[in-house]
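Practice problem: predict the structure.
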Amino acid sequence: MAANAGTGTTPAELPKRQLGTTSMHITRVGFGAWAIGGPDWVAGWGPQDDEKSIAAIRRAVELGINWIDTAAIYGLGHSEEVVRRALDGIPPSRRPYIFTKCGLVWDENDRRAAPRQIGAAASIRRELEGSLRRLGVDCIDLYQMHWPPRDGTPIEEYWGTLLDLKREGKIRAAGLSNHRVPLLEAAERIGHVDSLQPPFSAINRSAAEAELPWCLEHGTGVIVYSPMQSGLLTGTFSEERARNLGPDDWRSRSPEFTGERLARNLRLADALRPIAARHGTSVGAVAIAWTLAWPGVTGAIVGARSPEQVDGWIDAARLTLSREDLAEIARAIEESGAGSGPVMPPA
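Answer:
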């Protein structure tokens, strides 16, 4: 059975938005399964307990989240396997939508090697079969090209392949991740782009310049990733935590987690505290809600490594920031000097 929309035994009713022109209506926040892939690969987040991962997913579903975003590359297949374990025992009619990705192929003999960005049709089809097997489903609800390929495959081939898989019933919807407007335009000429997954946060704001307006104009859903900038905007991160990140945590090598950039980012997180206090919620929930305030954004992907982390951001699924809140955040962005890109959603 394909994964269907649904939640736990007594789920809370969370607001939903239609994902582009698809038949799927998704909660404003979805569970992101990158970190639960574990540490033993090039973009791992350090040690992770699978049982805590499973508990985190089940907590999100219990609270009403109706979609999970993962990828074959996360943990080199491990994230998808953990997602399957977490969903075992939940009746198909109450299971969340499952979104996953293709286009990053790893070396089985060197788990720490950077994956190859492959777009060849045969490779995509092999990757899909692997994801279907690991997830235990016969149809992926949303299948996304993770990055533009670097093997010379033209967009006509790789996007055409995803559209073929949709026609064949192996996937319900086809999307692109980390693609800019010129490639979105090229893909749309071949067949409709159901969704885009760009990075977007109050620190990384570049998608607001062109991609969000393009998607709004073309009926393409948008699910943004890293809305809390990989932990920097949770309100619990610190310079000490950044210094103690292990070598098996990709963030230890990111410029956003060191030096002046780190200082600017933490100043911005601190500036969100008064807004969080007014709403009786967390800094992280405010950071997520900021991304959801932008026209064109359908939902935000938020990771969690424990049930407690889910509890820390679940308020974002209902939180609506006022224009006054957004103006205060815009001033905080400018004063902190964090990141780049537009600072205020259009009215």
